[in-house]
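Lecture 7 notes: from sequence to structure.

We start with a single chain of 427 residues. Read the sequence below before looking at the structure.
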Amino acid sequence: MKTITIVGLGYVGLPLACLCAEKGHKVYGLDTDKNKSDSINKSQSPIEDEYLIAKLKDLKNRISATLNPSECIPNSDVVVVCVPTPVDKNNSPNLTAVMESASAVSKFIKHGTLLVIESTIYPGTIEEIIVPILKKQKFDAYKNDVMVAHCPERIDPGNKKWTIENLPRVVGGITKEAAKKAAEFYREIINADVVELSSVKAAEATKIMENTFRDVNIAFINEMAKSFDKAGIDIIEVIKGASTKPFAFMPHYPGAGVGGHCIPVDPYYLIEKAKQIGFKHEFLKLAREINNSMPHYTVELLENELKKLKKSIKNAKVGVLGLAYKANVDDVRESPASEIINLLKTKGADVFVFDPHVKNGSNVKDADELLNKSDYLILATDHSEFKAMDLNLLKKHKILAVIDGRNCLDKEKIKSMGIAYHGIGRS
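Now the structure, written as tokens:
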């Protein structure tokens, strides 16, 4: 049995803490949020997630959450940092949380401890930032005083097929010994392959590349959706057709915007780092521009439908279904719904918002109240509750137009009721 401290008890750190405890290790959770720590110490999940709610109940206080690094770090054999790495308003990487966590840990960590950074970082971060922080406390990572490694987090909230336990992982270390020790640790707790890379930089670059790949492909399909819409071609039908090819095509889907902590953020880490070493990522910047344009495009679709009805966006009563960035989670990080709502308000619309998973962001009590108060709808999140909604309610509440930002509603049924329908790349 090892003693393990997970630094950061969010969407990445808390599932990892649960997994480590489930495997029989003594687990501490270190976080700066007292409410979060108090909830976990009561075996209650601060995150709306079926897996975490069930696991914390089953584990019955086997994770000790604390705000004080001196209570856990000195006793730990393994310390894993899982804190957020966002971008600022200029899309520049913000590594403040990682730096502060590493600094706090370095003051209490013992000789020979395995220190793993799971937070998404640009290539070179561990060597340029983490190692010098440790050096200030007289730890030489190159001599394995502290075994420093990077294992980029891989987690997809709400995904029941691919979980923290069965997703393959990649590790890289400051030394070969650190990489080996990190690989051994992950092999103990997950039932999947753990691949050791030759350098910590290669491991740092892996996560960035994975999510940038997705961002670029989503941007491609979003641009195709805009193009096909002009041509009167249904993008979903085309994707279905292209997906019959058994090689060289991977379906991605258009939407009202890209959200979450990874895809809209990670490319900027690569863009910024490349700039520092004298390379310009024009292609990645363009992909970001296209995906960032989708909330604006979604609102434009509504404005076009309003023009057909000889109506104005000003004072229009618009219901927005969904605040979370993806279906069936309460995660609103980088959610395009926020941008859609802000744009509507800026243009003078009266906006009603409901998300069954994000109650504190809703301004109506349920979907029925939203429909009752709205003349037009924008679906921003494809929650199961919205996909299963009785579409006859749209007619009952005299909805005039629906903008399906996730292409998940039955367009033919909506149109058959005399309601204007427009999806992303389908009308």
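The CA atoms of residues 68 and 348 lie 47 Å apart. Keep this in mind for problem set 3.
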